[in-house]
Design brief:
Helix content is 46%, strand content 13%. By secondary structure, it is of the alpha/beta class. It has a single domain, classed as Homocysteine-binding-like domain (TIM Barrel, Alpha-Beta Barrel). The strands form two sheets. The protein has an eight-stranded parallel sheet with strand order 1-10-7-6-5-4-3-2, with helices on both faces. Strand 5 (191-195), helix 10 and strand 6 (222-228) form a beta-alpha-beta unit. Helix 4 (45-58) packs parallel to helix 13 (299-310) and helix 8 (143-159) packs across helix 9 (173-183). It starts with a helix and ends with a helix.
Length: 314
């Protein structure tokens, strides 16, 4: 039984945290950079630890590390040595671990909550390109090249002590297949794959998510199938498509529902913690067992989810 199964055998819901990058930005960080939130690993790591801590206080069961866009290649382009780049990737796990230790020292964990987990975020190859390719896919890479791209970062995060690896915002089935084959090299590791989707039926490259779920259902080492960085309105349909083809636990952590305007570099629309919690309740009713937030979600959103899920916000 993998770690995710063990937790879900005892607890009805595993609550993820919310956004890291946009939360850092909300607190004053400048993340207009190809490294995105990974830039803060260099400039202000204490700010990352602070965000992790606040999500634990809000009720999150997991800290998603600030490693989504942290790659050796990206750090080297920024002027880091290869070893500095590797250490920064390890540091993303260490910061989450420190936040967990501080939270457990400051708070008594209620029986309704599992022991907090460290989930290492691993973005797709498209995130490294920093050109929006994680919402398109089709970046002309072979499966073998994608395996090679993800290998060392996965090894570093596991070596640093991550409990789970989360390959997220994956836009293509080919990249998902590459990840499955890569993880066969780490047979004791628990991981999930989460897709970015552009409709209630398809992942971003256009492949039906049901086809992806059917392939992943046979992967014994895979702990869950996810949907993230996707408009909330698409989530109920996507959950139903995954459930029709797989018995794996389903993770959903969409964005806040606001729309990003790349021309003005601003967000449009409105979102509230109460609305996000109401949607989360619907996602649980549809079959999701792992729920959190992606871009523009906040500790307030996660606290609202915790309140309805177990009657507490801390």
């Amino acid at each position: 039984m993998d770690l995710i199964q063990k937790v879900l055998a005892v607890h009805d819901l595993l609550i993820l945290d919310g956004a890291m990058a946009t939360e850092l930005e909300r607190r004053g960080a400048d993340i207009k950079d190809a490294l995105w939130s990974a830039k803060v690993l260099i400039e202000n790591p204490a700010a990352i630890e602070g965000v992790h801590y606040d999500y634990f206080v809000a009720g999150a069961d997991c800290a998603m590390t600030a490693s989504y866009q942290a790659t050796i290649e990206g750090f080297i382009k920024r002027g880091c040595s290869p070893e500095q780049a590797r250490q920064l990737i390890r540091d993303s796990v260490t910061l989450a671990q420190k936040a967990r230790e501080r939270f457990l020292a400051d708070h008594s964990l209620s029986p309704s909550r599992p022991q907090p987990l460290i989930v290492a975020a691993i973005g797709p190859y498209g995130a490294y390109l920093a050109d929006g390719s994680e919402y398109r896919g089709n970046y002309q890479m072979s499966e073998a090249q994608l395996v090679d791209f993800h290998r060392e970062r996965a090894a570093l995060l596991l070596d640093a002590g991550a409990d789970i690896l989360a390959f997220e915002t994956i836009p293509s089935l080919l990249e998902a297949k590459a990840i499955v084959h890569l993880m066969e090299e780490f047979p004791n590791a628990c991981y999930w794959i989460s897709f970015s989707c552009n409709s209630g039926d398809t992942i971003c490259e256009g492949t039906p998510i049901g086809e992806c779920a059917k392939f992943l259902d046979g992967c014994g080492q895979l702990g869950a199938i996810g949907i993230n960085c996707t408009p909330p309105d698409f989530v109920p349909s996507l959950i139903s498509k995954v459930r029709a083809e797989s018995g794996k636990p389903i993770a959903v952590y969409p964005n806040s529902g606001e729309e990003y305007d790349p021309v003005t570099k601003t967000w449009r629309g409105c979102a509230s913690a109460e609305d996000f919690a109401a949607r989360a309740k619907e996602w649980r009713a549809c079959g999701a067992r792992i729920i959190g937030g992606c871009c523009r979600t906040t500790p307030e959103d996660i606290a609202a989810v915790a309140r309805w899920a177990r009657g507490e916000g801390n």
